[in-house]
Specification:
By secondary structure, the protein is α+β, with helices and mostly antiparallel strands. It is built from two helices and six strands. The chain folds into two domains: 1-33, no CATH class; 35-91, no CATH class. It has a two-stranded antiparallel sheet with strand order 1-2.
Length: 91
């Protein structure tokens, strides 16, 4: 999945491998698509993904606007975050 993401010129991403012969998920984004907020190190993101994988947790996704919290009136100080996440096992 990483090869496809890089071929599409996405600099950053998260890949969740398939279980068996089906499924899998790849999220990709370009570096300039961040809408403010605090950056996380690759080490922190790897640890987070490892915890999700070890606990067999999967993101349930969301419906609606992509961000649920906004702060700042001006574009150069505006921060938008997606705060509500749902995780569950497939069982």
């Amino acid at each position: 999945m990483e090869a496809v993401r890089l071929k599409c010129n996405f600099e950053n991403g998260i890949d969740v491998g398939a279980m068996g012969s089906k499924g899998g998920l790849s999220l990709g984004w370009k570096g300039n698509s961040l809408k403010g907020g605090r950056l996380r190190s690759e080490r922190q993101m790897h640890a987070f993904r490892s915890i999700l994988e070890n606990c067999n947790l999967h993101d349930l996704g969301f419906v609606g606007r992509w961000f649920t919290w906004e702060r700042g009136k001006f574009s150069d100080t505006n921060i938008r975050e997606h705060l509500d996440r749902g995780m569950a096992t497939l069982d």
